[in-house]
Write a structure and sequence with these properties.
heterodimer; A: about 350 residues; five-stranded parallel sheet; two-stranded antiparallel sheet; about 10% strand; B: about 350 residues; alpha/beta; Rossmann fold; 2 domains; seven-stranded mixed sheet; five-stranded mixed sheet; 11 helices; 12 strands; about 35% helix; globular
Chain lengths: ~350, ~350
């Protein structure tokens, strides 16, 4: 039985059922995709897995609000490797992520060269995701400068984990975004899942909250939200984006979220008993009487069938020709004199 | 006639006016200083950054992705080591993204010894720079080449690491930059910032013209038939001077190849010269272990072994942890003119 709550008091009502259903569908799609990637990694149908199960709530809420397009008039995204749900919410096809996992030639993000979840989408300003930790906070400075100079409401969005905030790049981004000479419209996002690989952050970090780093800078907002709740995340992202778009200044948003399959395949990629944002979201929807068990099962089934069909298709696709390693070393092609024998 | 620092400044000015350069930045790059070697004085888009090399490299990469053609400076190459993974990203992002993201940026940085710079102002970076595969690497030894290489670097769609030999930044060459003034004093009066208060100073730029040194093309500084020296940067004028003296003394006719570009490098020019002379010295100031000259040496042995008259040589820095400050220490560890003379005489005199 749905609780009696006023519209104003219930953020779920405020967001509206259409958006909630869309968020839910995308969260499920992202989860099903990630769980398939893990299976592929374990079954030898790909190699290393790293991804974002547990970040679906926050990341779908983010992806749906991006000003999507190419060039400084649109948002730039400097993402870490747990961002599949952001890409799906922006409209990426799941099959392309499966292609990157299987390292086939048709992997549109890296031609079979990079780990899975390492996106690069120039049409949407998704700059190349790197396996290096936190360097995205340094590159965010550059697109932030370009957008600070332009007459636009577009912003730079950068995300990463709590562990990475110990790196200098995080602090570079804070310092450069707050330069009095040219403040930058950068939305800094930290997904705090409490771990840096296997090391609990409580043993390594004395900060009360990561968002407290903003206190060193006059007027820089910092906020910590429940990243396992898509609705709370949605409104927090909306507020933070609005601030950056209008003020042309930085904002630090910390989201507390679960890491449901550990760091990566290197730590086994087994399910961890932490809060599951999708299960919690579904119980919220059912509590309000907006979804029932049967409709939920249909959504999961539909997405599993979609991902399965995509996976079967990708299995038929060719791997890159070994010599394609010479493509894209330089944008104008390989010079004739370049050494290509690998020795004598 | 411009010195090398002025030539770089003129090229950057040309870049601002004609090539879409909108961001020239780094530590002390903007006013009032205009760069510790004055290479960015008076430029309208030059600005000062925080003292943060990683931030500088990240900013350059982000700006390139945003469609700008930034020119960033690392104040001394000795300070570049903490940016290595960002340099790698600059170099590999085109490849990692399957060719989807181009990376048109220039990183310029003073390199090498010769200014009594001690341990952290004397480094060379060639071996590391040339292992950042995907990055182009250039290093001029004359003002005219400094000008032409900078214009080529700005126009290039790939990242270019532009190494400025510290010891040569005040040196002059023989060729004028198209459109510059022959009179040094007059040029200085137009484009050098005055001592003291500069807040109201503005440069008066000469109408310099485009001059391109293609990246990947060496300069034959002196033709010769008896031996080849392959070098670049600070060692290039020393090699040229020694080659001229040896020729004047009738001791041999040495061909001097100033590489100008380390990646890609002009193997054709090197190969043709070695085929002609059968004798080669690779000369640079970086330490000898895993030296870039060793790669050229190996390729020479692989491809030209039967055309060599004598064994090839490498003259490089001694593999000490740093360049010591006391002059005797620096001269001992970095090749000096007398060392180049000795090496070339040795190369010329070995019986075939």
């Amino acid at each position: 039985m749905a609780e009696k709550t006023s519209v104003a008091a219930d953020p779920y009502e405020l967001l509206g059922r259409d958006t909630l259903f869309r968020v839910h569908e995308l969260m499920v799609k992202a989860r099903v995709l990630e769980e398939r990637l893990i299976k592929m990694s374990k079954s030898g149908d790909g190699f290393f897995w790293i991804g974002g199960p547990g970040e679906e709530a926050f990341n779908v809420a983010l992806g749906l609000q991006v000003k999507k397009g190419r060039g400084v008039e649109n948002d730039f995204l400097h993402l870490h490797y747990r961002s599949s749900a952001i890409l799906l919410a922006m409209g990426a096809k799941p099959i392309d992520t499966l292609r990157q996992m299987r390292t086939v030639a048709g992997d549109p993000y890296s031609k079979g060269r990079n780990f899975v979840n390492h996106y690069a989408v120039p049409e949407w300003n998704v700059v190349p995701v790197s396996p290096t930790i936190e360097t995205q906070y340094s590159t965010a400075i550059g697109t932030g400068i370009a957008q600070a100079r332009a007459k636009t409401d577009a912003i730079t969005i950068v995300n990463g984990g709590d562990g990475g905030t110990a790196e200098g790049d995080f602090h570079s981004c804070l310092v450069w975004s707050n330069r009095p000479a040219l403040p930058l419209p950068v939305l800094m996002i930290v997904i705090n899942n409490g771990y840096a690989i296997s090391t609990p952050s409580r043993d390594q970090h004395g900060e009360r909250r990561i968002s407290d780093w903003t206190k060193a800078f006059d007027g820089m907002p910092g906020r910590t939200v429940n990243g396992n709740d898509p609705v709370e995340s949605y409104f927090a992202i909306k507020e933070a984006m609005a601030y950056c778009r209008k003020s042309r200044r930085p904002y630090l948003l910390e989201a507390l979220a679960s890491r449901l399959y550990g760091h990566s395949s290197s730590s086994g990629a087994n399910r961890i008993p932490e809060a599951d944002c999708i299960k919690e979201f579904e119980s919220q929807l059912m509590r309000r009487g907006w979804m029932d068990q049967q409709s939920l099962e249909q959504i999961w089934q539909r997405n599993m069938e979609e991902i399965d069909a995509a996976h079967q298709q990708v299995k038929q696709e060719p791997f890159p020709a070994p010599e394609s390693a010479w493509e894209d070393v330089f944008s104008s092609g390989l010079p004739d004199s370049y050494p290509t024998k690998g020795g004598s | 006639m411009a010195n090398m620092a002025q030539a770089i400044r003129l090229a950057l000015h040309y870049g601002e006016e004609h090539l879409g350069v909108k961001e020239i930045f780094g530590e002390d790059v903007g006013p009032p200083l205009g760069g510790v070697f004055t290479a960015t004085q008076g430029l309208k888009t030059a600005w000062n950054s925080p003292l943060d090399e990683r931030g500088i490299m990240g900013a350059a990469l982000g700006l390139a992705w945003a469609g700008s053609r930034p020119v960033a400076e690392i104040q001394f190459v000795d300070y570049i080591f903490n940016t290595l993974d960002l340099l790698k990203l600059c170099a590999n992002s085109t490849w990692c993204s399957g060719g989807k993201f181009k990376t048109p940026l220039v990183v310029m940085t003073p390199t090498g010894s010769g200014i009594h710079g001690s341990i952290y102002h004397s480094h060379s970076f060639d071996s590391v720079a040339t292992k950042l595969h995907g990055m182009k690497v250039v290093c001029p030894s004359t003002p005219i080449d400094a000008y032409g290489l900078m214009i080529a670097a700005i126009k290039d769609d790939d990242p270019v690491l532009y190494l400025k030999p510290k010891a040569l930044l005040r040196s002059r060459g023989e060729e004028l930059i198209p459109g510059e003034l022959a009179d040094e004093k007059e040029l200085r009066g137009m484009i050098d910032a005055p001592i003291g208060d500069r807040s109201k100073w503005k440069p008066r730029w000469p109408e310099v013209k485009e001059h391109l040194v293609p990246i990947g093309k060496a300069r034959i500084s002196k033709a010769g038939a008896d031996a080849t020296v392959v070098t670049h940067g600070r060692m290039a004028p020393i090699a040229l001077e020694v080659a001229k003296e040896l020729a004047a003394a009738g001791e041999g006719d040495v061909e001097v190849i100033d590489m100008r570009s380390l990646i890609p490098y002009d193997w054709q020019a090197i190969k043709e010269s070695i085929r002609k002379t059968g004798r080669v010295l690779f000369l640079n100031e970086e330490t000898e272990i895993s030296n870039f000259g060793e790669h050229l040496f190996r390729r020479t042995v692989d491809e030209l072994f039967y055309e060599l008259k004598v064994r090839p040589r490498l003259l490089a820095g001694k593999a000490t942890p740093g360049v010591g400050l006391s002059p005797g220490l620096e001269y001992f560890s970095v090749p000096q003119k007398t060392d180049v003379e000795r090496s070339l005489r040795d190369l010329l005199s070995e019986p075939a």
